[in-house]
Design brief:
The complex is a heterodimer. By secondary structure, chain A is an all-alpha fold. In chain A, 86% of the residues lie in helices and 0% in strands. Chain A has a single domain, classed as Methane Monooxygenase Hydroxylase, Chain G, domain 1, CATH 1.20.58.220. Chain A is elongated and about 65 Å long. Classes of the chains: A mainly alpha, B alpha/beta.
């Protein structure tokens, strides 16, 4: 039984690590948006500097998954858990990368005159952050119902993106002098929209982990 | 304890687990409500299962769960154990092998068996493979006998290793070669079903790998049932897997499903090592 306890310990450690990575991605997004809204380039630079640690954490999770598969040969729910984590870690790392891109945009925009606030951008960020938190909660509790709810809520972020997109294009046309800065905000909106897609991926993996059901690319 | 009472219908897959579904075949072996007793002790309880033609089915379960006992009911090998008693039906091609008047020798010709420990006769390699052919008078000439021996050795992937020393003692072969020789001996008489009771448990990883490759090749021609304690082996070689516990059949499923998402909690607990 000791061997099985050992596997349980390793799976538990893997769970802790992926949640840590999730927390890092969540914090990176929150801080990048703070840097943008509060025009705080120092915070944006901290997000960028911290990204190496996020990358390192992803590599560690990769290694741990490979070790467990090679040495413990997990099956059934254990296998689904390890596979889900192995696929989830790069998704979380990508979310942190998008947060870095937002931080870079913040640094650039903070060097320019302030724009009128684009309200939907804040709402998008808030919603993306909420989705990510809920996705990590669903993963932690292996709750496929909650994961499916989070997937549905991605529509909201897509709607906000479409609205923001049209609003920013409108601004570019009406106020050409701010077009470059508006374009940067457009990229920020796109990053947030992509984060919503990545959170959807995480939830699909949670559904697989909990129910062994493949729901990716299904309606 | 959940127990399957209806014979599970199993989808045959062409190729290794994970390949695309290829259609559904007919049952080569169909077992209905089989109960088996060692004296007063009931070792198998109401086993019902269908084994489709030309697949590999693995039986897994903890020691003493009845998987080897069940395997031996499929060619009446338990008949030789005094005090045993069987109730229920084992149909091979729709004929009950426990029906009165069944020719048990003919049955065991059709349903061959390979055991955990290789058991070559203290004879030459050639004579070991030729043994069943000779006692069953299955060939009409020396050249036909030689041809059948050669084919059996080729089918068991041993020919290239022994073709130049067919007259040497079989006991001079390595453990893995001896086990493949026993498989050749079983194949020589052209069985329809091959039962394997932990055929690689005493072999090193390379010899085990050869046996597993052989099993994979043989399923093109034979229906193979293998008992194994090694779950990774079951996952590697079989198309379908049956899990036994305390003499009961708990679950039968495609091997792919069994090892990624078993239906029964008892199976899941066993597969993930959290049993008991």
């Amino acid at each position: 039984m000791d061997l099985h306890r050992h596997l349980d310990d390793e799976l538990s450690s893997l769970r802790d690590r992926v949640l840590l990575l999730g927390g890092e991605a969540e914090q990176a997004l929150e801080r990048a948006m703070y840097a943008l809204s509060e025009r705080d380039s120092e915070v944006a630079r901290q997000v960028l500097e911290h990204d190496d640690q996020v990358d390192q954490l992803e590599v560690e999770i990769d290694r741990q998954c490979i070790d467990i598969i090679a040495l413990r040969q997990p099956a059934a729910r254990d296998l689904r858990f390890v596979i889900s984590v192995a696929k989830m870690a790069p998704v979380l790392e990508r979310i942190a990368d998008h947060a870095c891109n937002i931080a870079r945009a913040a640094i650039d925009l903070n060097n320019e005159p302030e724009l009128k606030p684009v309200l939907d951008l804040g709402r998008m960020a808030e919603h993306a952050g909420k989705m990510l938190r809920s996705a990590l909660d669903a993963f932690t509790s292996s709750d496929a119902v909650m994961a499916r709810e989070v997937i549905k809520s991605d529509n909201e972020i897509n709607d906000l993106y479409n609205h923001t997109f049209h609003r920013l294009i409108e601004l570019m046309v009406t106020e050409p002098a701010t077009a470059t800065r508006d374009a940067r905000l457009l990229f920020v909106a796109k990053h947030l929209e992509r984060i919503g897609d990545y959170v959807t991926d995480i939830c699909e993996l949670t559904v697989y982990m909990a129910e062994a059901a493949f729901i990716k690319h299904t309606n | 304890m959940p127990v399957q009472t209806e014979p599970p219908k199993i989808e045959i897959r062409d190729g290794r687990p994970g390949s695309s579904a290829h259609g559904v075949g007919t049952a080569k072996v169909a077992v209905r409500d089989l109960n088996f007793f060692y004296g007063r002790v009931q070792a198998l309880h109401n086993i019902s299962i269908e084994i489709p033609e030309r697949i590999v089915m693995a039986f897994i379960g903890p020691s003493g769960c009845g998987k080897s006992t069940f395997l031996r009911t499929l060619n009446r090998m338990n008949d030789v154990i005094p005090g045993t008693h069987v109730a229920g039906q084992v149909l091979i091609d729709d004929h009950d092998i426990y029906a009165p008047g069944t020719d048990v020798v003919e049955l065991r010709r059709r349903v061959g068996m390979v055991f955990q420990k290789s058991n070559p006769f203290p004879k030459s390699i050639f004579d070991n493979v030729a043994y069943g052919l000779r006692i069953n008078r299955m060939t009409s000439s020396g050249s036909e006998l030689e041809g059948r021996v050669e084919q059996a050795l080729k089918d068991s992937a041993l020919w290239n290793e022994v073709k130049d020393r067919l007259r040497q003692s079989a006991l001079s072969l390595s453990g893995g070669q001896q086990q493949r020789l026993c498989i050749a001996r079983a194949l020589a008489i052209r069985p329809e079903v091959l039962l394997m009771d932990e055929p690689a448990s005493a072999l090193d990883p390379i010899a085990t790998s050869k046996i597993e490759e052989l099993i994979f090749d043989l399923k093109k021609q034979y229906t193979i049932v293998i008992v194994t304690h090694n779950m990774q082996q079951a996952a590697r070689v079989s198309d379908t897997t049956a899990f036994f516990l305390l003499g009961k059949l708990i679950e039968v499923n495609s091997t792919e499903k069994m090892f990624t998402a078993p239906t029964e909690k008892l199976t899941e607990d066993y597969i993930t090592g959290r049993f008991g």
